[in-house]
Design goal:
Blueprint lengths: L1 H24 E5 L14 E6 L10 E4 L30 E7 L22 E5 L9 H4 L2 E2 L3 E9 L4
Antiparallel strand pairs: 1-2, 2-7, 3-4, 3-7, 4-5, 5-6
Length: 161
Amino acid sequence: MRLFLVLALAGLAAAAAGLVLLRTALSVVVVAGPSMSPALRPGQRVLVLRRGLARLRAGRIVVVAPAGLAARGGGPVGGGPAGDGPAAARPVRLLVKRLAALPGEPVPPPVRPVLPAGTVPGGHVVLLGDNPDFSTDSRLWGAVPADRVVGVVLDRVRLRG
């Protein structure tokens, strides 16, 4: 009986540790706005694998931290946390975009007016929204530091009920 109790507690502890590890590797993000339509709709939830575990490839949909992104000749874009009140109470705002080019790859034609170098600089990526009429992306920002990429979208999340 005692052995069974010890094994049960060890199993519960292992399950809890597994859930903590899973939570640090995966996140659910809610899409806001039409910039990724038709691939993703506003209000849709997506499962995101944290960047340290995911390999970046052109064509993948990624989640990006907007802090420090600025329009050429302008102020910050996306700002950061939304809402009023103390910073701890504000949700973190992330951007969802398609990874269009990696370091050393050719700059996509829509981005060439702001990034005429020909190739994406080292340590940077080019991000584009699927719906250019409603997207703020590398056509405005130029190349984005690769460390701004939080993770890679794995799949859409379907909730029951």
